[in-house]
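User: quick one - fold this with adenosine-5'-diphosphate bound?
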Amino acid sequence: MFAVIDKSVIKRNLEVIYAVLLIIFIPAAIIVNTLIFTNSFGSVINQELYSKGVAIGDTINAGLMPFLKQPESIQTQLEHVGRLNSEVVGLDVLQKENDEFKVIASLDRRAINKTTKYMQYVMAWQEDNSIAYVTAATGKSTLSELSEIKNDGIRYWQIIMPIRDQLGQKQLLLSMRVSMKMLDDLTSQVLFRSYGVLAITVLLIIFVLLNNTRLFAYASLYKKIKEIDQMKDEFISVASHELRTPVTGIRGFVSMILAGDMGPIGDKAKQSLQIVQSSADRLAGLVEDLLNVSRIEQGRLSVDIKPTDIDPIMKSIIAEMKIQSDAKNLLLEYKPQEAKLSLVNIDTERLKQILINLIGNSIKYTEKGKVEIFVEEKDKNIEIKIMDTGIGMSPKARERLFEKFYRVQTEQTKNIVGTGLGLWITKQLIELQKGKITVDSIEGVGSQFVVTFPVAK
Ligand code: ADP
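Assistant: Sure. Structure tokens for the protein plus adenosine-5'-diphosphate:
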């Protein structure tokens, strides 16, 4: 049970989890990368500085060899080295006296003749090796008594090494301090740049995520709209099915009463029943349209396409529609342009439906004049053209003509009943049979609907 809840929570919040992970992981990766880089870069440079310090020490040692017994010359040498190497900030040469070390030359002349038992000197001497460590102390002498702690953020390598004579015997002790400022400056520059990149990356991620959040919102809105649309389709489907049976009952009984099957009825009752009959007919038409819409939308509308001669179908439909056109005193004419038409791949029942819709509309929206139906074979297509001398429509209305529930709203159409579904259904039916429909119309002059179907091979 809990596992199910957890999974669904994760699924629903997947976008949020993904966003949070992105915000955490990318900057973390950049930080780790920067730290690893500065660390390895730092240790390389550190090693370099230390080596340079030792090299300077060896050079000093070589330079001092001839003057090991002449403190004045050693002093001159140290000052020379100090001038040439700006990163060497402190420099002392010490001589072992008993268990102490006495400064015999220094960049800081105040240190000369001072003695110390400083542990690091003792260690370097005893181990006969150079030792180095990092310190923050500054000063031109390395003697701890004379060093100042400035805490200006600069670190120094303190290197202590024995000075040897030509025979390799240690004679004196050299102590120097080499600045690590160059390394520290470089490291902080690299860090500063990395933090800049980090800040820009975080901003970019936030920007992308904000945009995505909007997209997520649209996506879920789209999902909801689709769900509602589906519910609407289902409602239409159920409602039209449920309406069909009672409407059929009403129409059946009303026509039986009107035909006198239930006994004689008076004129008044007859008139009222005729109104009931036409209303019930309209209702049946609406229910049928809605059923067709839901069938098409749910892909449940089957078509039985086969090569067909449309001429007899045209003739029978026109004969059927004549009742309506005669009632309006309109001329309804069928004008096939060829003696013999090729067969067309269509479903007979669907073609009848299409013709009834289009010819029915022409009769419905024409007050006087005629409705003509031409059939012609053109470029391997059969073209059915329905032309009327009716009210026509504006170019703007024409653009939306095949939309579901669209009806042209004008003075002339306001008393004509309809659902706005006929042309949508017609277009879907035509396209299901690989056909096309186009419309041309001039307001006040008439309309022309052209339906084409490819000729059967
Ligand atoms: P309706 O049930 O309203 O007739 P249709 O989908 O069949 O619905 O037609 C949509 C609209 O197109 C109609 O409301 C009408 O305004 C217009 N229309 C359709 N056929 C014609 C025509 N032959 N002449 C003028 N207007 C037409």
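One thing worth noting: The mean pLDDT is 88.
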